Sequence to fold (311 residues):
Amino acid sequence: MRHRHFERLLAACDGFDAIPTAVAHPCDAAAMEGVAAAVARKLIAPVLVGPLARMRAAAAAADFALDGIELVDAPHSHASAARAVEIVRQGRAEALMKGSLHTDELMAEVVHRDTGLRTARRISHCFVMDVPDSADLLLISDAAVNIAPTLEEKVDIVQNAIDLAHVLGIATPLVAILSAMETVNPRIPSTVEAAALCKMADRGQITGAAIDGPLALDNAISLAAARIKEIDSPVAGRANVLIAPDLEAGNMLAKSLSFMANADAAGIVLGARVPVVLTSRADPAISRLASCAIAALLAQARREGRSRILP
Fold:
């Protein structure tokens, strides 16, 4: 069934209190429709931040009544992002959601050293993919925040993805550190870093998952390919978390699945004080809802003291 994994995430949120969420600059109909759908599913209790006239016009275009919803005036998109982050810092919101502004504008405020939402963790992005006929959700990181992560940064990227997988109900994530091949080649730095990450996991520097790498994509997700190449690993052919060597590879992988394999992708930023919902105007409604559901699950885990991602 299409969307069965995303529907499971939505069902897991039934009974939660709606998550107070600062929505930065929801100033077009698509952004406001995403807010309206999440409100209808009782996933978020939004605080809408942006130019009042434009937000009201967008709500009218989306046929979304603003009765009882807090509106915070901000003159333009940069100010909307800054004010939304400030609302989170004040403790008035447990999640942050992108509206119709550019991702760079929002993330610049999130990562600001003095006024942002940094923690001890490196901030990273994770796509959560609902791939038709797959046995489970597929997580891909990092495909939107860290352009060319160092080995040190990849440690947090991997740990963030593992901790998210736990919150999403994957008890033992199977993490593949991707490269172009499954052997260590000193001329390809990503293979060396993959091997280092695996040894760090052996020594307890990364925890909570089975990790293997370097693995090429085929032998990470195809048991047949792994067997042909005689890779003896609990991860090879079974991976449900894919760690890309860099942003370009991760982004192309996620979008290839979306546009060539009919997968749907939810997106979440991890490692900040609160989960950050990143959506695209091209996202279908189910992806927007699933992104909000993931944020709600993370916020609920924090409320219950089960999250290692958020402080």
